[in-house]
Amino acid sequence: MISSHLTLKQLEALVCVVDMGSFRKAAAVLGTTQPNISNRITKLETDLGIVLMHRDAGSVRLTARGIKLVEAARQVLRSTETFWEVADRRDLITDRLRLGVTELIACTWLHAFLRRFRAAYPSVSVELEVGLSAAISKQFAAGDIDLALQPEPFPPKAGETLALGVYEYVWVASPDYFREFGVPHVLGDILRSSVLMHAKHTVASSELAKQAQARNLPCNHIVYSSSLASCVQMAVDGMGAALLPAALVNEHVNASTLIAMNSDWYPKPLKFFARFNQDKASRFVEAAAAFAGEEAERHGQLCDIDHK
To answer: Global pTM?
Structure first.
């Protein structure tokens, strides 16, 4: 029988070592020890009567046969997921989803997405990383993230992408701001007082700096923060006007704790995508990307802001 010579744990170990580049990293991903991973692959090689990989110091190199068998192993693992799905037993899929998202997603529809994913895959744990898009891109490229929910730009041909929608920017301020400074109409009016922005090296911040320079406008009142949530709260507290994604402040605008204002300049909208490696990803990662697309669309339909 096949089962007496082959186990899914062996195939899982083989694929994970190749994807992570080392036995140590594979052991961490699979929640076991490095000797266990080594034993599984050694047993597989013994049963097959071939060498699958060469072990070098801190790295592995697949043999020609190993390259072919890794792809076959991926197909077996995916077929196993399909089997559980057809049986309507996704609860038997035990794994983890390493998810990287930016703060905008974390502050808007992430919770709805996580609830939906858990309902579909209750035995798949989620390891969440929230950070700036540049950091998420680096982790994705290093293979430390299975699914990234982030805006452009990111390297071309860097995995499969699924569009999650476009997020417009809006200028907002507290009611006290308008009582003190009046209603601004152009960028120059806004930059005369404190302006709250996301981190200095984000795309929107760079675009604002370039626009101010082109118009010979002062930038000394711009206050940068690595936290979008902090920008929102500072704006609510009357510490200045803020340039933020509309989806982030929709509830505050509806509650009149923030008021949206018109301007003659806005940054380019954020185009968000779900990114995953289609050649390596498990089926539940692709399903998670699809869930993200549906939750992003549902949330986008709820956002509608009127300007002062």
So the answer is: 0.87
